[in-house]
Amino acid sequence: MGKVEGGMKCVKYLLFVFNFIFWLMGSFVLAVGLWLRFDPETVSLLNGEKAPDTFFIGVYILIGAGSLVMLVGFFGCCGAVRESQCLLGSFFACLLIIFGAEVAAGVFGFLNKDKIIEDVQNFYSTTYNENNNSTLIVSYQKVVSKKRIDFGSSLAEIDFFNSKLYIIGYVGIGIAGVMIIGMIFSMVLCCAIRNSREVI
Fold first, then answer.
1. Each residue of 175-185: pLDDT tens digit?
2. Phi, psi at residue 159, to the nearest 5°?
3. Cα–chain-centroid distance for residue 179?
4. Among 55, 110, 142, 147, which is most exposed with the fewest C-beta within 10 angstroms?
5. What is the pLDDT at residue 31?
6. Contact 198/20 with Cβ under 8 angstroms?
7. Whole-angstrom Cα distance, residue 126 to residue 18?
8. Is the entire prediction scored with pTM above 0.70?
9. Contact 12/4 with Cβ under 8 angstroms?
10. Angstrom distance (rounded) from CA 176 to CA 181
């Protein structure tokens, strides 16, 4: 079994370091997703029978992608250290699938940003009209720091959810860039391993 030499050895260790960083970033994405899902302010806003779940769809995609990225990063580390074409090819395929899922989540969040905010505003407007003393309305006002109760026209809700959606977007863009680098490294190393075995 041939081992990579010279510059490819450097690529091997770079891929290992990349995958370790990738694993850490997957942990970070998972942590951000869990924070957005269980953040007391966000949960207090989106609790209720008829509460819109559009915001949490993007968050669940983020949690799933973060978990998968952690797993794939671990397998990428193993593939780089063992110089396994199979593991490196699987790593590349998984990165490509995750990349597609993150692009889909980003497009979903961007295209539905206004709908998410509108759904939340409509939900709280309906809740307020049905029950003026609702604890849900009190927590909503506390979270978005509204000075007056004027559902559907305040910019506080838009600012609150824009800040949360931008967090999702920025994290996704950062991870996507790192994934592209990982796909390039894995294919370069995979080809080098194949070539070194053909020489022997």
1. 788 788 888 88
2. -60, -40
3. 12
4. 147
5. 92
6. no
7. 49
8. no
9. yes
10. 9
